Amino acid sequence: MRKTKPFLIGLTGGPGVGKSTVAEILVSKGAAVISGDELGRRVLRRFPDTKEALRRHYGDVLFTARGLLKRKALGRIVFADEREVAWLNKRMFPRIYQLLREDIERLAGRYLVIVVDAAMIFEWGIDKDFDIIWVVISSQKLAEYRMKRNGRLSPEEIRQRLRFQIPPYEKARRAHTVLRNDGNRRDLQRMVERAWAADVLPRLARQTRG
């Protein structure tokens, strides 16, 4: 039996804007979600040569005694220097993209909607792979507060990472749908519901009729 082509949503935005919360809501709607961060972790497990390249370039100091990469320490080094960002992307992105395509193919037979939650969709140049792009934005002050509350990134680390991302207003201009997450979860839930009704349900209805 021929597989139905899934509807692909690219979900992107900067740190602390609430992409993961949007992804959780979309899972509750029946979508499958692929995490860009998890793809990066899987690259290191599946491709030992990539992990070894990191070890040769950065040294053992970025690895635990069990051989696990210290991701926060790596981020502090990489996002302080654009040359390091370019070096890391050159080695990681092709493998990340390979796993992404494999995951989409694997999930296509079971899900009508697949969401890829990744901060770098535009930066990687893969936005055309998706049927639609959703961008989550919020005030930088609120994003920094959320990250600090969750113990993830400091305000300075957020600013460092944003230096190497397309500005939020440009992502918003290039997106099909913009979710501005400056309220509470209930507000965000309502926005996602509206976007789902406008962007996704008509497509699923056409597939059903077809």
Describe it.
The chain is an alpha/beta fold and 210 residues long. It has a domain of 145 residues: P-loop containing nucleotide triphosphate hydrolases (Rossmann fold, 3-Layer(aba) Sandwich). 57% of the residues lie in helices and 12% in strands. It is built from ten helices and five strands; from the N terminus they run βαβααααβαβαααβα. A five-stranded parallel β-sheet has the order 2-3-1-4-5, sandwiched between helices. α2 packs across α3.
Helix content: 55-70%
Q: Structural class, please?
A: alpha/beta
Shape: globular
Q: What kind of sheet is the major sheet? A: 5 strands, parallel
- CATH topology descriptor of the domain at 7-43 and 97-204: Rossmann fold
Tell how many strands the DSSP assignment holds: 5
Number of helices: 10
Question: What would you say about this model in short?
Answer:
This protein has helices at residues 19-28, 36-46, 48-58, 71-78, 82-107, 121-124, 140-149, 155-162, 168-174, 185-209, and strands at residues 7-12, 32-35, 113-117, 132-137, 177-180. With 210 residues, the chain is α/β, with parallel strands linked by helices. The relative contact order is 0.21.
Describe the structure using short key phrases.
210 residues; Rossmann fold; alpha/beta
Secondary structure topology:
Elements: E1 7-12, H1 19-28, E2 32-35, H2 36-46, H3 48-58, H4 71-78, H5 82-107, E3 113-117, H6 121-124, E4 132-137, H7 140-149, H8 155-162, H9 168-174, E5 177-180, H10 185-209
Parallel strand pairs: 1-3, 1-4, 2-3, 4-5
Helix pairs in contact: 1-10, 2-3, 2-5
